[in-house]
Amino acid sequence: MPMYDYRCKNCDEVFEELILSSTTPDEEIKCPKCGQNKSERLLSAPMISTSGSSNGVSTSLSSGCGHSGFS
Ligand SMILES: [Zn+2]
Fold it and tell me: Which fold is adopted by the domain 3-42?
């Protein structure tokens, strides 16, 4: 199910919203904290512009699951 991260421009609350329709306008996304519909969708980009770390992208997906293919 498509989950999107939203951030409220009013109170800066970040929350996840389940979007059933891809055409759901942001105006219908209400902040669970303050109830304002001033939320903006956050793009799930792996890069976060944090000053200092040059390469802080680390994926933990390669741990746990077994290898697929060769046996
Ligand atoms: Zn809010």
Answer: Rubrerythrin, domain 2 (2.20.28)
Residue 19 above 70 pLDDT? Answer: yes
With 0.90 as the threshold, say if the pTM is over it. Answer: no
DSSP state of 50: -
Distance 39 CA to ligand 1 centre (A): 8
d(CA 17, ligand 1 centre) in Å: 13
Ligand 1 center from residue 57 Cα (angstroms): 29
DSSP 23-45: T--GGG---TTT--S-EEEEP--
In the chain, what are the domain boundaries? 3-42
